[in-house]
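Hey, can you fold this one?
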Amino acid sequence: MDDHSVSRAQALADRLGLVLSDLQPDKNQLWLSQDGLAFKAPAFNKPFSIDFNSGKYDHRRKFGGGRGQPIARAVGLKQGQTPSIIDATAGFARDAFVLASLGCQVTLLEQNLVLSLLIEDALQRAAAEPAIAEIAGRMQLYQGNAIGLLAEPALKADVIYLDPMYPGRDKSALVKKEMQLLHQLVGADMDSAELLSVARSKARKRVVVKRPKGAEFVGDQQPAASVQSKNTRFDIYPTA
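Sure. Predicted structure:
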């Protein structure tokens, strides 16, 4: 680790009240290197990080289908209309990045501190990448409980987007490693019904809820419409 990375690591440790140490394979650790911040867990072979300029993020930006893709249609992106978005369940920030790449101003809310730190680091690195700096500039991150944050008068948007933790799968189904990590960090979904109700009272135009195709509606709240993709459904709740 170079001197700059050591300085950054020490500043982050001070901010979080943690102690710097070498990598320990048997413990969960935040790992800062020249490539950015990553999370290392014993259950996973490779450290996990977020990079908006590579992998699935880059592929979706270039080949995701633009404003014709289901998520864009669900939030109301159309000719002459580019709604502002609050992504109240940011997670790995993939959908938020897609919406920002399509021109939306996106406010990301993430309760889990580790995920929030990974997104924050990814945004800082993206700001220095010419290809995506403008996109990153349309993304603003807040760390905290979404229900509490949505009560803040300053947080306003045309659309509130929710992607609550997917329902449990059959034990025989293999969950992707990154989803295992998300479950480990975030835990079980306990408040999606309340969050949907709060979001419906807050959004200027609509709330959009991402669900697996065939899943029940959140909190048994019937949407006005849905947009379908191969494996996913976007439920739409107009508020105006």
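Confidence is low (pLDDT under 50) at residues 169-175. Let me know if you want another pass with a different chain boundary.
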